[in-house]
Amino acid sequence: MAERQRVVAELGRPETPDETAARKAESSRIYRSSQTTRNLVAALIATLIVVAVIIFAVPRGTPAPQDPLDISAAAERVSSSEGRTAISPELPEDWTATRATIDGEGSVRTWLILTTPTDEEIPGFLRIAQGFDADEAWPARVLSGAAPVGAVTIDGIPWDRYELDPSRTGNISVALSTRAGADTILVYGQADAATLEQVAGSVTDQVRELQEEAQ
Question: I need a labelling partner for 137 at 20 to 30 A (CA). Which of 26, 52, 180, 201 fits?
């Protein structure tokens, strides 16, 4: 039985075999192209679903707050390892110690405590340093060559007072230093005068102890 020929309206006549083959080939191409597009869209949607599951299903939560640094315990360890008294300052209630370490850089070995306000929105910091067997020029070296501008007595202990240019001293604007036997105590950073003197005064007994040890 002869194959019925398809009349094409645009041509007004039956298709030739070549036209029929071309039409079927084009239809197959369009079908394959649409399948590929649908597959890509489906793969993209599946990827987005997996990413969303990872983002929303993995528990995050806020990290547990770290316990404040125990300055006293750290000072005891340093005293034991160094064979000498390491100071242990008491900080104001709204200040906390962030680090306590032995700094061996430079010519003077130093017991160094870093502190900041507990409220991160409040600017400021203080460093409490004990220079072991420090020479008289040590504070000037730490403070970028600055010289004291006066003196203040706190609980009977005389301290040299510094007022500094923060642009030259790494944001350090104030400092106090005093001799403690063979060592020098230096309290410096960016804080109001009351906080600076309160921290310096918290080591009064330890300064006297160091002075007595040196006699």
Answer: 201
Average the pLDDT over 25-46 and give the result: 70
What do you get for the CA distance between the two ends of the chain, in Å?
A: 128
Q: Give the span between the Cα atoms of 116 and 197, in whole angstroms.
A: 15
pLDDT at residue number 63: 46
pLDDT at 38 over 90: no
Other beta carbons within 10 Å of 128: 25
CA gap 152, 208 in Å, rounded = 16
- Nearest CA-CA partner of 91 in 68, 110, 121: 68
Burial class (CB in 10 A: 0-12, 13-18, 19+), 88: buried
Burial, 214: exposed, middle or buried (Cβ in 10 Å; 0-12, 13-18, 19+)? exposed
Distance CA 117, CA 79 (A): 26
